[in-house]
Design a protein that fits this description.
Length: 370
Amino acid sequence: MTPKRPNSAGAFPKAVESPAPELPDPSTLYAALDLGTNSCRMLIAQPKGSQIHVVDSFSKSVQLGQGLESSGKLSRASMARTINALRICKQKLARHQVTRMRLVATEACRRARNGAAFLAQVRRETGLTLDIIMPEEEARLAVISCAPLVSTRTEQLLVVDIGGGSTELVWIDLTNVPRRERPRAIMRLHAGFRQDPGPFPVAKVVDWISVPLGVATLRDQFEDVEDDAARFALMSWYFEEKLAAFAPTASEQSREGFQIIGTSGTVTTVAASHLGLKRYDRTKVDGLRMTSDQIDAVIRDYLNLGPEGRRADPRIGRDRQVLIMSGAAILQALMRLWPTDRLSVADRGLREGLLYAQMSADGVLEDGPF
């Protein structure tokens, strides 16, 4: 007997449709773009309480400053790579209909003889208008991005932002600020490093410095040194020399109530290596506290691996491996100079600072705990 064919046989299965994610209300969105010496990075976010909620992001190693040390100019190849990356940023901004944004360029465009001409070309070819910001604003934005990581027990704070072309250090005295107000006092620095005492407690900026050496420019200074360990030692020594004019290095500081916050790809990579992460996880890295012994152990491991070993190490990543030793040299110099055995790791920086500054100015962040 021939089996009877079911009525539904041969029918196409009904598709299970998942609705496309709804785009957030454009009126709530802010964007921040940081075009540095090595990377082009952007965040699109909205305020959420006293914090920011990231809606979309972009990050690409464009090596804009490649060859800048020797020529004094941005090369055609690096400018082409950067414009291609900026076109993607433009598409994301258009997709989300973002109208409030701050797009900035830093050390490479500050130093290059054709930096301003390049940004005019960017405007013509992508429609994006980028501002070249000065070192003080760059340092200030890095500081306020780290406000949520400031301990209420901190009395002396050093924020270090290791970039591709420069490194910013800001020393802040919080002793006259009530403990619960210390993170918020850092946030108020978006208005400037020098503030008149008003109704709110003021964080006092003791000193700040922008050293024109970052992971890319420091590497380029010593690329002719063939021995890996010798090159690392020379880079660390050379960077330390550049800090001689930074006032807080002149006097001994107490370990009690002292906090260093480091923000950069170098610091987060060292933290990820310490944790043994083969796949980067921001939630495990941002806010992590590392001892100087743990940092030294990771750096010794990098040196033992050598260039080939670092290139193959998944904890470092292909983009970061060419820059990790110059960044580690800067980090080790800083840990030698200051009296703390712990470093707070910040996976945040200029972009977050740009967002906080815009939102704070508009009054859309809630006045609550971080």
